[in-house]
Specification:
Layout lengths: L5 E8 L7 H4 L19 H4 L22 E3 L12 H9 L3 E4 L4 H9 L3 E4 L2 H11 L5 E5 L4 E3 L5 E3 L4 H8 L4 H6 L2 H14 L3
Parallel strand pairs: 1-2, 2-3, 3-4
Antiparallel strand pairs: 1-5, 5-6, 6-7
């Protein structure tokens, strides 16, 4: 995974509560066996009309959100089924950070496993971001190392994060990568084990 230390990017604002994983990536696209290529199906039923053309009313189709890598959302983002494909779709679309007052637990965990940073901010902070940033091109900086979201006017919001998850994101490590940090010790153990069993 690509390390995430300090991310600067355009923010897109999705003004809906209880956005579930069935909307983030609809069930008909779960047949794919690879992790890539899901971005074009992100929010498919909201992004596209029945004829396949872009829905001009949907937030992410607005030109001022084009190229956004930060998603600002409302309460209970990622609820619904536990599909990891939801995190894959967001990452493949280009989202690195999601800001919301609350997340569904399984989705929250899946984000960290796939290089996404879900940041919990207060409802008041999220409301303020919507007030100053929604409806036009707006950039934010998310400083993971110092655990703060920086606004263009110089103000900031601090956030909490589990230290182990923070370490993994800062160094671009998934669970396998974290294990491979101990590759030398694992190899030494295996060598001792072979000797002990006479192989």
């Amino acid at each position: 995974m690509e390390p995430l230390v300090r991310h600067e990017g355009k923010a897109a604002f999705l003004d809906r509560v209880n956005v579930d994983t069935d909307q983030i990536i609809p069930k008909q696209f779960l047949k794919r066996i690879e992790r890539s290529g899901f971005g074009k199906f992100l929010f498919y039923d909201w992004r596209y009309l029945d004829d396949g053309s872009p829905n001009p009313e949907f937030a992410l189709n607005q030109p001022y959100y084009e190229g956004a890598s930060i998603l600002v959302a409302r309460d209970n983002f990622g609820c619904g089924s536990s599909r990891e494909h939801a995190a894959w779709a967001l990452a493949d679309y280009g989202i690195r950070v999601i800001l919301a007052p609350s997340f569904a637990d399984i989705f929250y965990n899946n984000c960290f496993k796939n290089g996404l940073l879900p940041v919990v901010l207060s409802s008041e902070a999220i409301q303020h971001l919507f007030a100053v940033g929604a409806g036009h091109s707006y950039h934010l900086t998310v400083d993971l190392e110092n655990q703060r979201v920086e606004l263009p006017d110089g103000s900031q919001y601090l956030f909490e994060i589990d230290p182990q998850r923070k370490h993994k994101l800062l160094h671009g490590l998934d669970d396998v990568g974290l294990t491979l940090q101990h590759e030398g010790a694992i190899a030494a153990y295996e060598a001792r084990r072979k000797v002990a069993v006479g192989r």
